[in-house]
Amino acid sequence: MVNLTLVPCDMTKIFSKLDYPFTTKFTQTDNYRIAYVDQGQSDKIILFLHGLGSYIPAWKFNIQELKKYFRCIAIDLPGFGKSDKKIHSGTMEFYSSIVFNFLKSIGVDKINLVGHSMGGQIAINCALNFPELVDKLILIAPAGFEKFTEEEIQIIKSITTPESFLTNDMNQIRANYKTSFYNFPAEAEFLIEDRMKISEDDEFFNYCATISNSISGMIEQPIFDKLKNIKQKTLVIFGRNDSLIPNKYLHRTTTEEIAKTGCAEIPDSTLSLLDECGHFAQIEKANQVNQVIKNFLL
Predict the structure, then answer these.
(1) Is the pLDDT of residue 7 over 70?
(2) How far is CA 201 from the centre of its chain?
(3) DSSP strand pairing (32-39 vs 25-29)
(4) Which of 291, 278, 287, 228 has the alpha carbon at shortest distance from 248?
(5) What angle (nearest 5°) sits at the alpha carbon of residue 187, between those of residues 74 and 202?
(6) What order of strands is seen across the sheet that includes strand 134-140?
(7) Domain coordinates in residue numbering, the chain
């Protein structure tokens, strides 16, 4: 974790003006102003947790369809999107506590939890720490299935300082996002456009510090050995061509092997592997992801 001078939250200009596809609401949770969307009418509720550096709009192609069948709630985790940018620890316990208290603040006591990447590791922590809260669990390219040695953890931390994320170079940003897709679709262009806007915000450094802290939070609190304790029925979705999991610089294995190894630890789990699909499966293969979620929950 890094200790840095906080930028006052009322200085945010651009983050608050990001174009969201659904009406944005706000609630106060653990001294953080949390942004969220709430779409659809159903007794079956889905809560969506985005990944590292991401935000609510990453779920727009899923909520547009799934709100026909479920009440769909998505939040911006602290430090991301339109939520407060106060720098925090980035631990998985911090995030899971935020999720629990957020749901209490809006009067929800039972959910189906969907998490992408870092959001997947947070979702696992929520399922373990608050089993009464989570009915079913859906993990999309979840962090936590891949294991790292102490030496690898130090290597990752050394190259993921806040300063390493400060770039506002369009070519670099585009290259970074393209690695998250098998074939970058035109529909995902908004991710790059918003990331360019964010780099001009007064609180951009806080955002980068939160990314750095959250990476440490994920790798310093491994979850793999606890997967066997998950009681909820679980759906795991991976793109076969995920270039982020496994870490291609540290591990010579495949996404499929990581996915199958993790799933084998979860007692009641189903694995869906999507062809010609990268890390952002919920965008790149939105129709397929939506269908397997409906099949799983209905």
Answers:
(1) no
(2) 22
(3) antiparallel
(4) 278
(5) 60
(6) 25-29, 32-39, 71-75, 45-49, 111-116, 134-140, 233-239, 269-274
(7) 9-297
Tokens of 225: 């050995």
Tallying the residues shown for the chain, one arrives at 298
Cis peptide before 246 (omega within 30 of 0): yes
Cα–Cα distance, 33 to 9 (Å, whole number): 10
Question: Sign of the CA dihedral 226, 95, 157, 264?
Answer: positive
9-297 has which CATH code? Answer: 3.40.50.1820
What's the distance, Cα to Cα, between the start and end of the chain in Å?
41
Rounded distance between C-alpha atoms, residue 273 and residue 283, angstroms: 15
Mean of the pLDDT values across residues 145-151?
97
**pLDDT tens figures, 79-116:** 999 999 999 999 999 999 999 999 999 999 999 999 99
The contacts of residue 288 (CB under 8 Å, 6+ apart) are: 274, 277, 281
Q: What would the two tokens of residue 96 be?
A: 């899971």
